[in-house]
Amino acid sequence: TCSVAKKELDDLEQWKKEHRPGPITLVPQRLGGNESEAQVRQNQQMILMQSKYQKKHKREEYVKAKKAAEEAEILKKKAIQREKAERLEVKKRQEEMQRREMLLKDQKYKTNELLNRLDVGLPKSDSCQIANPGPESTAWKRSHAYKQALREDENRRLEEMRQEQRRKAELLEFKQKQEEETRTRALKDEQRRVNNAFLDRLQNKTQTNNIYHPEYTG
């Protein structure tokens, strides 16, 4: 039995030697793409660097946009606070003007009351002809002229106060319009800057795809 098994093994080894495949001969040919390995690695490195740059640029644009939005919000809050302060100041000035006007009216009333007391017993009609005007007639004329001058002076002061209040109100309204236009212009400029940055990123991305994927240029 051992001899039979040994003979079979020898026959198997002999068969393997006789049927061993010979050498393979292939015609040399170029494999792979049209670019060399160095060029491929260089392109891969360039794409990697460009991707890092785009991510960095996108982070910077995000930080800038966030900072601009925060600054715009701060400016808006400051403008609101300034407008409130100006309105409060105008209100205080108006109250002060009203107080002064009330004081002037009160002073005018007291002055008129004093002059009316001085006029008691003096002539009141211009039709009364006095051939030889005495001290009482002269005093009445002086008090009447004094009263008239006081009235004119008080009326002039009141008119000046009204004009000053009107000018301040017009100046405040003009200033508020200018600030509103400035805020609107700043918001429009910021929106335009953000839109331009987005379009620039989109254009750069499109140009990059056209460079490294020319088959998609159509």
UniProtKB/TrEMBL annotation:
InterPro entries given in the database record: EPSTI1 (IPR026185)
Residue stretches in coiled coil: 55-105, 151-181
Organism of derivation: Prunella himalayana
Protein name: ESIP1 protein
Source superkingdom: Eukaryota
UniProt entry keywords in alphabetical sequence: Coiled coil
